[in-house]
Structures are given as C-alpha cells and as structure tokens.
TrEMBL record:
<dbReference type="InterPro" id="IPR036465">
    <property type="entry name" value="vWFA_dom_sf"/>
</dbReference>
<feature type="domain" description="DUF58">
    <location>
        <begin position="35"/>
        <end position="241"/>
    </location>
</feature>
<dbReference type="InterPro" id="IPR002881">
    <property type="entry name" value="DUF58"/>
</dbReference>
<dbReference type="Pfam" id="PF01882">
    <property type="entry name" value="DUF58"/>
</dbReference>
<protein>
    <submittedName>
        <fullName>DUF58 domain-containing protein</fullName>
    </submittedName>
</protein>
Length: 285
C-alpha cells in the first residue's frame, strides 16, 4: 500500500502472491490432455479417442484441462463511515487496494470484471467486461472514490439485476456500518440473484482495540453525532459488544450461505487473495 499507483500496486501484490500458485482448471474440451473416461450417451462424438478404441475395442472420451472464465462484480461500500482511519490509511484506501488486486488477478485469469459503488445514497455501476482497457477504467474509478453520505437506498438497486443470466461471483467490500439493516437488505437482494457472494468486512485496528491515542470525543462519520468516551473504562464492555456483533454478523452471513471474512486494515492482502481464489474456483467447477 506504500505504492500509490493502483495499477502498479495491484500487479506487485498479485505477482508476488501468484508466484508458485497453479492456475485453476476444470475438465472439458481443451488443448492440454488430462485423462480418459468411459463414453456416456450424449457425449460429443468428436471427443472420442479412436486410437484407444482400436487398442481396447471400447469407447473412451479424451478429457483436457481448460482455463475457466467467469463474471465477477466488485461491490464497494463508499459511504462516509469508510473514511475511518487508523494511522496513515483509511478503510476506503484499503478497500481500493483490495479490489484493485482482486480485479487484476481476475483479469489475469481471463474473467470479466465489473464495479459497483454504494455511495451518498446512490449507486455507480460499471458493467462486467473482459479486457485490459476495462481494467484500466476500473482502476481509474477506484482512484476517484471519495466516501460520502449514507449507504445506497434499495430504489437504486436496479443496475444489480442487469447483465448475464449465468451465475456470477459477487465480492462485497464493506465496514458493515448500518443504521436500519440496509447492508443485510442489500445482501438479501443479491441472494435473490442466486450468485456466489463473498463479503470482506473491514475493521481498523484502533476500533477493534478501542485505542484512539487519548481522544475522548468521537463522531459518527455519517450522521455527525458525537459522544464522550473514557476509553480505559469503556474498553472491556466495548470489546464484549464488538465480539457479540461480529459473531451475530457471522451467523447472519452463514444463514444466507454467504462466505464471510473479517479483515483488519493493517493486515497484508494475502488471505483475501486466497479466499477470493477459493470462491472463484468453487463457482467455476
């Protein structure tokens, strides 16, 4: 994250991570031989291996390995609460680097990528497409992101229903800050599309530990409301409530069959990349 250029940062992160990692494959018609299997009624006769038939007098299908291509939509919460900072970085900056790295990785594997930004009660939509120019446009849009306002209202969700009818991978990056269950309303909407969903829940180290270096007045970034807190006295009760909230959130995600991962903004992106590849491969098979 010390590299300010998203394109270069994403390439540096992914190239380092992918060193030694095999690309994902599925069985199908391709160029690289994988294995034989017995012929089944309905199989494409062009896949029959006639040399194997001549040797064994039995019909075999020649299977090969092919790369899988899917459509991936990145959904970014850019409401004002994503301006929360810990040290030199805000949550939205971490989200930018995370999405840029995942998008670069997806593009590297030939996947179509799209970007949807939830900000200031509106929705910015960039339909999924596969080419390097599209990836550059996605980087540009990420670089322009400045969190503002409250989370997007359901009336603007129409763009989420456009596009291909096949199953997609939806990657949602958010701090799960909500006032009226709007995050879970969105997830219920996404679930109705029957896509695979991954939620990366961003937390800052200072909010996990309630350690804000002597501050006593705290402001809600979305409503402007303030509260006085003695951090030392409040810390134990606060962390109990936070742990309860995180467990309840995890269970709600599990009930919706959504893959859920908390990320602290001082952590490297490696685990997020592994989780992303795991879910991408799951959808491809």
């Amino acid at each position: 994250m010390a590299i300010k250029d998203l394109n270069l940062s994403a390439k540096t992160t992914v190239d380092g991570f992918m060193n030694g990692i095999n690309k994902s494959v599925i069985k199908g018609q391709g160029l690289e031989f994988s294995q034989y299997r017995s012929y089944q009624p309905g199989d494409d006769l062009r896949s029959l291996d006639w040399k194997m038939f001549a040797r064994s007098d039995r019909y075999y299908i020649r299977e090969s390995e092919v790369e899988t291509n899917i459509s991936i939509r990145f959904l970014v919460d850019a409401s004002a609460s994503m301006n929360h900072h810990d040290g030199d970085f805000t949550k939205i900056e971490y989200a930018k680097y995370l999405v840029a790295s995942l998008a670069y990785l997806a593009n590297l594997q030939g996947d179509a990528i799209g970007l949807y930004v939830f900000k200031d009660a509106d929705l910015f939509a960039m339909a999924a497409k596969q080419d390097y120019q599209h990836l550059s446009r996605l980087f540009f849009q990420l670089e322009q992101l400045k969190p503002a306002g409250s989370f997007t209202q359901p009336i603007h969700y129409k763009a989420l229903f456009t596009g291909a009818q096949k199953r997609e991978l939806l990657v949602f990056v958010t701090d799960v800050y909500q006032s009226n269950a709007e995050i879970f309303d969105l997830l219920d909407t996404l679930n109705s599309l029957r896509h695979e969903i991954v939620v990366f829940h961003l937390l800052a180290r200072n909010e996990v530990e309630l350690d804000f270096k002597g501050y006593t007045t705290f402001e809600d970034l979305e409503t402007g409301a303030t509260v006085q807190i003695d951090q030392v006295k409040a810390r134990k009760h606060y962390q109990e409530n936070l742990n309860r909230f995180l467990e309840e959130t995890r269970m709600k995600m599990l009930d919706r069959k959504i893959y859920y991962r908390t990320l602290i903004t001082d952590q490297a992106l490696d685990q997020a990349l592994r989780d992303f590849l795991k879910q991408r491969n799951k959808l491809s098979i």
